[in-house]
Amino acid sequence: MQTRRPPELNPALLPPGTAVGSWRVVAWAGGGVHGAVYQAVPLDDERASPMALKLALLPRDARFAREVELLSRVRHPHIPRLRDSGTWQHPRGTLHPYLVIDWVDGAPLYDWAQQLRPSSQQVLRLLAQLARALQALHAQGCLHRDVKGGNVLVHHSGNQALLTDFGSSRYPDAATLTPSTLPPGTPAYRSPEACLFELQFFRDPQARYAAQPTDDLYALGVTAYRLVTGEYPEFAEPTKNAAGIWHLEGIASPAPRALNPRVAPQLNALILRMLSVQPQERGTAEELAVAMEQAAKHSHPELTQSLFPQEEPVAQAPPLTPDATEPIKYPAHRWTWLPRIATAAVLLALGAWTGWIARGTSPAPTAVIGQKAGVAQGKDGVASGVGDAAATASSAASPNSATPGVLAEDTPPTPVPGQMRPDAKGRCPHKQQIALNGNCWVELEREKCEALDLPTYKGMCYMPVFSPKRPPTSTPATQP
């Protein structure tokens, strides 16, 4: 009788009881493209309070060393505390770095807002905490570079927010991991100056945008805007002057209070400040934190009423799976040129068709936020984020499949006429492309599905790939 071989360990889905360094896995808790998160306890004290153990899916992933280094430099009540780090050896011999941080009994920011329907006062307090966390980072010369709702966890009490996922961070003298025009991050949260830089220099392979603390503050503004309106802010159309320099007049989207009258004037003003196209007008993280804390001290009815009336229907969040880093629950927004700017260089390099990204039309703007912004060239090393992916959401259920990524979107994306096909061996021409449904695609994280309005399948975005000789269709690609 043949003996059944035990299933091979998968870093993305370790079973309970697996030893990782001096820790024992208790339960799967979440995951992203680069890492999986587990609830774990010490091997020598299994009655101890659980911690969050993040394990790299790829061997020797340098993102984890970057996150360990930054967390070891910064200690703040609104940043998870680093407890341990090391390397786990797979039975096949590959080495996967891991780190252990405090377990947060909470939910991602946007999930929390839907469940608890906070007031402007509560939002101001949480934003102030995040601004204080950024203040601590910036004081050390560090940048987060991927501030967004999916990287913010709110304790179930609603009184404490933590800024998470430092795999995309930057600290002084950090080594360059993956050179590209822009640092790592999520397109919908990129600052105007970063997007203008890519529009200006996307044809220059040596150009590097140097992220600044104000980029983190703009991303915090986008997070706040989406939190209170359910939409992302849209840029006005950029213009080019006689010298060939791209400029931006402002933000074309309405002020938050115009979309949601329940937003208190104080919160509305601070969100607009963070979304200014002039970086210096955003101020510093400390200045914003002080302003938010002062505004939250008042108890006016506009500050204390819920931002979301009880009678409004609330979409139910799908269960978390290893690929479901941040379930999409807000109304779909309409994009103009932002995603094309933020992804122009990537799409050209991979030969991807950008037609899907520009679907829909933008509503007529009711206000323009900020003043003109220009672009200047700089240098910076870049890295890729790990993705906490609701890492410590205690309500996450452990998957019962041996393969990560089981979502409701179980229909493969529909091929587009003229799309590139894999060769006879089923391989696509570029290592970052995958063969799916008889065609070649570029796979993106779920957060970008919402940002770029792309079709999803098993929790991931898919962009069709065409031959590099195909004429580009996006505005940035046709500009000199």
Domain unit count: 2
Largest sheet: 6 strands, antiparallel
Q: Given this structure, which CATH class of the largest domain is correct?
A: Mainly Alpha
H/E series: EEEEHEEEHHEEHHEEHHHHHEEHEEH
Q: Might you state the CATH topology name of the largest domain? A: Transferase(Phosphotransferase), domain 1
Q: What's the total count of β strands?
A: 15
Percent of residues in beta strands: 15-25%
Enzyme class: transferase
Keywords: ATP-binding, Kinase, Nucleotide-binding, Transferase
Organism: Stigmatella ashevillensis
Region (Disordered): 394-426
Give the SSE layout.
Blueprint: E1 19-20, E2 23-31, E3 35-42, E4 51-56, H1 62-73, E5 82-89, E6 95-102, E7 106-108, H2 109-116, H3 120-139, E8 152-155, E9 161-163, H4 192-201, H5 213-229, E10 239-240, E11 246-247, H6 256-259, H7 265-274, H8 285-296, H9 301-304, H10 338-350, E12 433-436, E13 439-444, H11 446-452, E14 456-457, E15 460-464, H12 475-478
Antiparallel strand pairs: 1-2, 2-3, 3-4, 4-6, 5-6, 7-8, 8-9, 10-11, 12-13, 13-15, 14-15
Helix pairs in contact: 3-5, 3-8, 4-10, 5-7, 7-8
GO molecular function, one term: kinase activity
EC number: 2.7.11.1
Protein name: non-specific serine/threonine protein kinase
Structure notes:
This protein is α+β, with helices and mostly antiparallel strands. The chain folds into two domains: 19-102, Phosphorylase Kinase, domain 1 (2-Layer Sandwich); 106-358, Transferase(Phosphotransferase) domain 1 (Transferase(Phosphotransferase), domain 1, Orthogonal Bundle), CATH 1.10.510.10. The chain has helices at 62-73, 109-116, 120-139, 192-201, 213-229, 256-259, 265-274, 285-296, 301-304, 338-350, 446-452, 475-478, and strands at 19-20, 23-31, 35-42, 51-56, 82-89, 95-102, 106-108, 152-155, 161-163, 239-240, 246-247, 433-436, 439-444, 456-457, 460-464. A six-stranded antiparallel beta sheet has the order 1-2-3-4-6-5, with helices on one face. Strand 8 (152-155) and strand 9 (161-163) form a beta hairpin. The longest helix is centred in the N-terminal third of the chain and has 20 residues, at 120-139. The model is unreliable at 313-368, 376-409 and 469-480 (pLDDT under 50).
